[in-house]
Design a protein that fits this description.
The chain is of the alpha/beta class and about 575 residues long. It folds into three domains: about 5-170, Formyl transferase, N-terminal domain (Rossmann fold), CATH 3.40.50; about 170-275, Roll (Methionyl-tRNA Fmet Formyltransferase, Chain A, domain 2); about 305-485 and about 505-555, Alpha-Beta Complex (2-enoyl-CoA Hydratase, Chain A, domain 1). A six-stranded mixed sheet has the order 2-1-3-4-6-7, sandwiched between helices. α12 runs antiparallel to α19 (about 525-540). The longest helix has 20 residues, at about 370-390.
Length: about 575
């Protein structure tokens, strides 16, 4: 069936729907709802689809579209729920289950007959964006595929819910934190409900900021609202009964001024005020216990941890948005080198849930005094990490992908001996859409995995891949079919079995021999030098498309039109 996706942006859910439908053999194209209704209607008419699906649409479907084409809307709420802040409200209200509905577009928003629905759990300690890419996305795919099957059968009649509940947009007044009254649990719910957009508006140190990210701090205490500590780019603020860590800040946009964007909280404060002042921790506070956490200087917050279970070392990292800045890459390299000193047979590298990595940190690069220099520093830092993984020959390295990986992050995964990927993850193993040639030794690792012809196609097509498709191509070694909350435990069991395998010594010997043969044919330094030469040329050219593309991406500027590679109908994984 010819399917057209209408979307406000080619976001994670739209990418997953696109890739999953292609895997099933449907010719799928995308049209972004960027312009006026007449132009969108004409675009749909040109595509002449058998079915229109809107996985993420922030505007109403024009009547000229839904009245002439069957059009299904993916709504992030259960049947009968209506409104633009459905998932936000569910998180902020502390619901334990929620749903997603595929309904037919009609004149009244979210009020059409239902083709399919599915429900999912809302873990209490997970932010909205993580839920959106995880539990909600899994439920949405289940409902979308069922709706497509029902539509294709020609025998199913969608049912209109007997009642509807309209929930209005969740305003900043409702999101606002009262630092002198709200306990930690309330503060965390508000922060998590606004993650990653729109953030929680707050006045802090004389400036209005949107707060992004929320993590509990069990040890530090102070005057409510006070800044207690900083660590790894995050800031710790006191609540009425404890404290929370806030990972990122975004200054409120000045009317008529340029769009603002998120930065690690300490960098945002330094950029905005030139100093970050913390209150002295109260006397007699409980000191953090000795833990598995590396590079921790105070409080409990860390974005990198290391722990051992048997002869398996688990090096876990989780960076906001999946982006890895220069400092994070260097700290992760230090932690990885520490892991290599330990008496283990297997190292598992990855996150417990959500993103694996999306490569370099474009926001910090955009904010740097010299973006070209910071681009190069960030690339060099992630290259150093990838090289360390590639040259680890005395143990097996597993890249564990609970969620999406893209660009340099996808190539970091390919440096490992095996890639284990949750079925719901989406991979984007390409750089072209940011105007970059790419680095991270991709010219060595990608052809080694899939062959030169497929590697060239993947990087040129620049389309997302499901985990299953990536497995069929050879990019992924194991696909784990589990819920997001089950991934970490499943990886632990699998890694333990691998470490106990009687074939492990032989595999390590073969790995070392293969690395030596490859090095003799062409050293890793040659791949790196050739890639960096291409990258430096782009970074140092002010007219290179990368700089404008980066700025547009960071500031979330709407493109002028749908990219050609999305408009092309493309079945079967590209």
């Amino acid at each position: 069936m010819r399917i057209l996706l209408l979307a406000s942006a080619f976001n994670s859910l739209t990418q997953r729907v696109h890739a999953e439908l292609r895997d099933l053999g449907h010719p799928v194209a995308v049209e972004l709802a960027l312009r006026d209704d007449q132009q969108l209607t004409e675009a749909v008419r040109r595509h002449a689809p058998g079915l229109v699906i809107a996985p993420m649409l922030t505007t109403a479907v024009p009547e000229e579209v839904w009245s002439t084409h069957p059009c299904l809307i993916v709504h992030p709420g259960p049947p009968g729920d209506r409104g633009p802040s459905s998932l936000d409200r569910a998180v902020q209200e502390g619901r334990d289950r929620w749903g997603v509905t595929v309904l037919q577009a009609v004149a009244e928003m979210d009020a059409g007959p239902v083709w399919a629905s599915a429900d999912f759990p809302l873990p209490p300690d997970i932010g909205k964006s993580d839920l959106y890419r995880g539990e909600l996305a899994d439920a949405a795919l289940q409902a979308v595929l069922l709706a497509v099957d029902r539509f294709a059968s020609g025998t199913y009649t969608p049912v209109t819910p007997p009642t509807h509940t309209w929930q209005p947009y969740l305003t900043q007044d409702e999101r606002r934190i009262d630092w002198h009254a709200d306990p930690t649990t309330t503060v965390l719910r508000k922060l998590r409900a606004a993650d990653s957009q729109p953030g929680v508006l707050d006045t802090f140190q004389g400036t209005e900021w949107y707060l992004h990210g929320g993590h509990p701090e069990p040890h530090l205490k102070g005057t409510p609202g006070e800044l207690l500590a900083t660590q790894h780019g995050a800031i710790c603020r006191a609540t009425t009964d404890g404290a929370v860590w806030i990972a990122e800040l975004r200054p409120r946009r000045v009317p008529g001024g340029p769009a603002t964007f998120k930065l690690p909280a300490t960098q945002a404060l330094l950029k905005g005020r030139g100093a970050v002042t913390c209150a002295a921790p109260p006397r007699g506070r409980e000191e953090p216990p000795t833990t598995r956490t590396q590079n921790t200087t105070g409080g409990s917050y860390s974005d990198i941890t290391y722990e051992e279970q048997g002869t398996v070392g688990h090096l876990t990292f989780r960076f906001p948005g999946g982006a890895m800045n220069t400092d994070q890459c260097r700290r992760l390299l230090t932690a990885y080198r520490h892991a290599r000193t330990r008496p283990t047979d297997v190292i598992v590298l990855g996150a417990k849930r959500d993103f694996f990595s999306n490569g370099i940190h474009l926001n910090l690069i955009e904010a740097a005094p010299d973006p070209a220099a910071e681009s190069l520093a960030n690339i060099e830092a992630i290259d150093d990490l990838v090289e360390e993984v590639l040259t680890t020959t005395d143990r097996l390295v597993i890249a564990a992908l609970p969620g999406n990986a893209a660009a340099g992050g996808a190539m970091l995964a390919l440096a490992a001996d095996e890639v284990w990927c949750r079925r719901g993850a989406v991979l984007n193993p390409h750089y072209r859409l940011m105007g970059l040639y790419g680095s991270e030794y991709w010219t060595y690792t990608l052809p080694r995995k899939v062959g030169p012809a497929v590697a060239a196609r993947l990087t040129e097509d620049a389309l997302p891949l499901t985990a299953a498709c990536a497995h069929s191509l050879g990019l992924v070694d194991q696909v784990i079919d589990c819920a997001p909350s089950e991934f970490a435990d499943e990886i632990t069991r699998m890694a333990d079995r691998l470490a106990r395998s009687t074939s492990l010594p032989a595999r390590l010997g073969a790995k070392k021999a293969a690395r030596e043969r490859d090095e003799a044919v062409r050293p890793l330094s040659a791949y790196r030098a050739a890639e960096l030469e291409r990258m430096r040329a782009v970074f140092d050219d002010p007219a290179a498309p990368y700089h404008a593309l980066r700025s547009a991406f960071v500031r979330k500027r709407r493109p002028n039109g749908t990219p050609d590679h999305l408009r092309t109908e493309c079945p079967n994984g590209g």
